């Protein structure tokens, strides 16, 4: 028997949400993504694009891609940059145990010229990788994340990776992502959810990494990819020697604010940072 509800609790006029609506501004990532989200501002009777300066405040963004496309590098760079600026960050590690994460974040802080003491002070880690009771139990996972966010008053949350919560149980993916998404929204977090390729779809699509279970629910999706130059045709097209790797990134969609829809070329520098180069169309036109 279906449970009855009181419809009055779920129906409000749009104007009633005015005081609850979040501001629209950017949370910097220290990467080229900061220039790709924008808002429309009316100046002199005309609408113009104004870079947001980061990912939208309180948005939950899915970062997808195949292995070794730079997803974790981007997540760590974002987390370190925000913690180094004095903002509380909750880093949920589902893949790598916390002690290995410590070393990676320390290196990031050093090459970015940030105080690692500041980063350590402002970042709290949820080690789901080493704790199956958290990783394999959604209730425990949400309770632990809520405790970390509320106790340490974090503003940013990174989950690397959300796929690890439903590994080998893809039928539960939609339920898992929805629960985590809703909790992060309630907690007022600006968040990155890292997801791995879990389908046979083309690598450059949102479906290829995390499936529709992730892309359909979150506020936006960033797709990261790579092309291994294996033929003379590809070598001529990209102007790169055989065996080279071309890395790409694009915003697949965002329901919060408008965004640049182009595919961009980026590099992972020798110091391990994500650095945008130029739009793919411009990169190819030079060859």
Q: Helical stretch count?
A: 9
From the alpha carbons, calculate the radius of gyration and give it in angstroms: 20 Å
At the fourth level of CATH, the homologous superfamily of the domain at 23-222 is P-loop containing nucleotide triphosphate hydrolases
Mean pLDDT: 91
Uncertain stretches: none
Level-1 CATH class name of the domain at 23-222: Alpha Beta
β-strand amount: 25-35%
Total DSSP E strands: 13
Strand order of the largest sheet: 7-6-8-9-5-10-11-12-13
Query: What class, by secondary structure content?
Result: alpha/beta
Write down the overall geometry.
globular
Order of helices and strands: EEEEEHEHHEHHEHEHEHEEEH
Strand count, sense and barrel status of the largest sheet are: 9 strands, mixed
CATH architecture heading of the domain at 23-222: 3-Layer(aba) Sandwich
Q: For the terminal residues, how far apart are their CA atoms?
A: 66 Å
Q: Say what the CATH topology of the domain at 23-222 is.
A: Rossmann fold
| Relative helix content | 25-40%
Write up what this structure looks like:
The protein has nine helices and 13 strands. The chain is an alpha/beta fold and 287 residues long. It has a domain at 23-222: Rossmann fold (3-Layer(aba) Sandwich), CATH 3.40.50.300. The strands form three sheets. Strands 7-6-8-9-5-10-11-12-13 form a nine-stranded mixed sheet, with helices on both faces. A two-stranded antiparallel ribbon has the order 1-4. It has a two-stranded antiparallel ribbon with strand order 2-3. Helix 6 (173-186) links the parallel strand 8 and strand 9. The radius of gyration is 20 Å and the shape is globular. It starts with 25 loop residues before the first strand and ends with a helix. The model has no long low-confidence stretch (mean pLDDT 91).
